[in-house]
Amino acid sequence: MTKRAFRVLGRNTPKVDAIDKVTGQAKFGADVKLPGTLSGKVLRSPHAHARITSIDTARAKALPGVRAVITSRDFPSHPGMADLTAAPTSKEGCLRDEVMAGERVRFHGHAVAAVAAVSNEIAEEALGLIEVAYEALPHVLDVEEAMRSGAASVLDGADARSAAGGPKAGNIAEHLEMGRGDVDRGFAEADVVVERSFKTQVVHQGYIEPESEAAYAHADGTVEVWANTQATYAQRADLALLLQIPLGRIKVIPTEVGGAFGGKETVRLTALCAALSQKAGLPVRITLSREEVLRATGPGNATVSTVKIGARNDGTITAIQARIVYDAGAYPGAPLRSAIRRVFSHYRTANLKIDAFDVLTNKPHVAAYRAPGATPTAFALESVIDEVGEALAMDAVEFRLKNVSRPGDPMPDGVVLPSVNLAELLQRIRRHRCWSSPIRGPDRGRGVALGMWTMPGGTTSCHVILNGDGSVTLVLGTVDLSATRTSLAMVAAESLGLDLDDVRVVIGDTDMVAHSDASAGDKVTYVTSKAVDAACLDLLGKLKRSVARQFNVPHEDVVYERKGFWVEGAPEMSSTLEEVAQESLRDGGAVMGVGSVSETFSDVAIAPNAAAHVVDVEVDRETGKVRILSYTAFQDVGFAINPGQIEGQMQGGVAQGIGWALSEEYDFDESGVLLNASLLDYRMQTSTDLPLIDANIVEIPSEDHPLGIRAVGQVPIVPPAAAIANAVFHAVGVRMAELPMKPERVWKALSADRRQDGAS
Q1: Helix axes 396-403, 374-391, angle to 10 degrees
Q2: Cα–Cα nearest to 549, from 584, 585, 591
Q3: b/e string for 148-181 if b means 16 or more Cβ within 10 A?
Q4: CA–CA separation, 273 vs 276, rounded Å?
Q5: What are the tens digits of pLDDT across the range 38-66?
Q6: What integer is the mean pLDDT of 608-635?
Q7: What is the model's pLDDT at position 80?
Q8: N or C: which end of the chain has fewer CB within 10 A?
Q9: Which residue has the higher pLDDT, 163 or 388?
Q10: In what order do the strands lie in the sheet with 131-136?
């Protein structure tokens, strides 16, 4: 695709909502203040696994100022969870049980009851008056132990179900197999075979804004909720199921989202707020503390994996085999499918076998986290790839370049990659100083790793309203994440020949816009830009017909450009956009353009996007501390609608990947209690920890999109952990097999290496 010249697109553009954000005018969940709003608080389980033998809420209800108290029995029964004494036996039952524990609590921090009161202090006091009797049950925290026969059952064994709904035995919710060819034959043909095992921990998305949501159950039976969510319409569907209310009687109003990264897709507090509001007859808002966020919301998953790769002496990979166990927490749904089909598309091989497991443990149910599951999966794959190249005495970039997937190659599930450009990125690295410059100084090393993602598809809707002055209002069904308001306003301005100031963007609620899928999976700008363009074309088509009626000519003869209409061949027959807008109010009514687009894939992936990262590190042998000296990220973005915004996405993904690699993990004690449920103890990277991140935007237009764009936000988090691990090896000669690579783990690995050298 030839890159087009654009008037608005492709230029660094400030956020259209920047003033609202910096002046505090933007409305986040905690800013929702309705007359009579009650404060909600949640009572949480002190056990990782226990049977609830009784709950007595009488004293809490009697406390002056308390307006409502709820337990799981206050949610209506439905077929997925008809019997409160049974385990949840469907996706719907798991959803209800996760929102509020039924017969059992399944992780420390599981919601057991909730109260609504006239103040936070009274609500907190009421929690202490709720008497809950527990019968402690055996629990399981380690995924490998959870898979063994006789392990404590998280969801009553055979009642555990996979995301697809099929029954599975024990704590294995799903066993997914993908591959092709014959790996045994492939390994027999190899001159070098490397097999290594890896382990990663639970991590949190680390969004700045703790969840805060509100609901108002009106006297007429309708429910309004103010949701801190990425998925407005999914939120409504889940609430309809949980509350047994028709969809049309629930209105979900999205608030601003202060960070999410996949962690705010599922229903969380709105169900509790709505149930409390139904009892109290007043609006209820619940705001979580940071401790509750870490203990009781969905983090990113842990993994245990083994990867085996064989290659010939000429560098050709002959086989790749992997066994990866994904820790789902207390309910099925770890992102194994999304991770393995992308990560194991990095390299071409005729022989591939992957066994992936979705395993239940007594921990919080995991949620998506930016390229879900891919960071720990790529850590394992790219570490072994690096070791195989080392064994063959091949340059790390050259070895990858020989084997990297190219357009037309299959993914593990057989879907074809139409235009993946990993090879082009590696060529650029090979020519760049980040790879060609020498590394000076002891205990310093350089590492490289790849990442790849494909857009998952989805449906999105919008409409464009023409105002009387010729400006437009763009109403979107997708929640704004990462300044998508700005990029989509730019698309509308470009399509309509307007200035950016002529476009106002509104994020609609579920009563304003047709169905739109979650703002997740990299699809917001990619899919919604198509819907915006369609809405703009629809609007212009209607306006051209209006002009054609005015001049009594066929509408095909009407031309539009830069706020002006005229009749082809008769320029004296002309009108400005503002004149047509005003005339439309008298001739046929106000004009609105509508756009709705669905993207699906069957046998071909949608607009694959590729990343390749290079990092230099220095390792302190005395302490094990890893210091990043420089970081360079390359990414194929197709077409950079707003380059500055894309650089921010790349740098943000790298920053989160560095945290995953070097410092972040959930630390559970033997009883399943999270010990580091604060940002003092859960060690996220700060600006003082991070290096300058050189973001290199590569633009190879996608044939799948009229503007040539590719998705941007997911893939930057995929390579960092692997690239840093490979750099550590090249600095001090030890392969790190566990994340995070905290100083004590690196020091222990160095000590073990020294002992091994001494023994030999």
Answers
A1: 110
A2: 584
A3: eeebbbbbeeeebbbbeeeebebbbbbebebbee
A4: 5
A5: 999 999 999 999 999 999 999 999 999 99
A6: 97
A7: 45
A8: C
A9: 388
A10: 104-105, 50-56, 131-136
**Residue 631 CB contacts under 8 Å (≥ 6 apart), including other chains:** 613, 614, 615, 616, 654, 658, 691, 692, 693, 694
Residue 384 has pLDDT above 60, yes or no: yes
Query: How long a stretch of residues is the chain?
Result: 760
How many of the other CB atoms lie within 10 Å of CB of 121? 12
pLDDT at 81 over 70: no
**DSSP H/E element including 730:** helix 720-732
Residue keyed to tokens 């392990």: 151
Domains along the sequence of the chain with CATH: 18-25+458-599 (3.30.365.10), 32-137+211-287 (3.90.1170.50), 303-456+603-759 (3.30.365.10)
Rounded to two decimals, the pTM is: 0.95
Residue 382 and residue 449 in contact, taking contact as beta carbons nearer than 8 Å: yes
d(CA 14, CA 37): 36
The alpha helices in 450-522, defined as continuous H runs, are: 484-496
- SS3 of residue 439 by DSSP: coil
Output the DSSP codes for 45-91: -SSSSEEEEEEE-HHHHHSTTEEEEE-GGGSPP-GGG--TTS---SH
At position 35, the amino acid (one-letter code) is: P
d(CA 183, CA 20): 56
- pLDDT confidence tier of residue 153, bands split at 50, 70 and 90: very high
Specify the range with the lowest mean pLDDT, choosing from 91-95, 268-272, 358-362: 91-95
Structure tokens at 183: 């790996």
